[in-house]
Amino acid sequence: MHISTFFLDLRSAYQAELDDLSFDSDGHHVLRKRLADKRQELGFLLQIMDLNPEMVAVVLHQAFQFTVPAVMDQFLTRHEDELLGWNVLKHSLKIEPWAQPIVDQILQEPMGDWFMSVAAALEYMHTKPLSAANRPPEAEKDNEAENDEAAHRPTDEDGGARIEDDDDQDARSREEAGNDWLAEQGFDRKD
Questions:
Q1: What beta strand segments (E) does 28-153 contain?
Q2: pTM (predicted TM-score)
Q3: How far apart (Å, rounded) are the C-alpha atoms in residues 86 and 78?
Q4: What is the pLDDT of residues 83-115, one digit of tens each?
Q5: Sign of CA dihedral 28, 12, 71, 85
Q6: Reduced to 3 states, what is the DSSP secondary structure of residue 41?
Q7: In sequence order, what are the residues at sequence separation of 6 or more whose Cβ sits closer than 8 angstroms to the Cβ of residue 72?
Q8: Cβ contacts of 137-144, under 8 Å, gap ≥ 24
């Protein structure tokens, strides 16, 4: 299966949105609470559903059960101007009972049909890992760069990776100095 660039781009944005909502500044997992808050703001969020569908689609996180994955797989190959309508796509999934009032409210909007199709696709992609064929070219370049960097890391006489080079020591010194300064300003130390 080949995912269109439209859906690949939205997938990254949707995942980033979920990641942003998942943890608070103290590292506590707060996704459930933040999603509940977002659902309460649905009226406001509907104003941006055509511009930033990934920011609104999170209100439907875990709202779908995909009963005919082949339809969703085929749907993901389409470009923005070729999307299936919600009336076609809805037959390939089930909506969780808690989400039905949200779906009904969304479908009352002029772009509701389009948005529901996109939201279902985002949630479907979220449940599936990206295959190598569907990774954006930048991700492949990043992997190649990491592998190339690892191959050229300095080693000690025994061929093992050197524990710490001058750059690592400089970075550690800068981090410690930054932590000291923050502590002087009244912030808690990270370590």
A1: 64-66, 93-95
A2: 0.67
A3: 14
A4: 888 999 999 999 999 999 999 999 999 999 999
A5: positive
A6: coil
A7: 66, 89, 92, 93, 120, 121, 124
A8: none
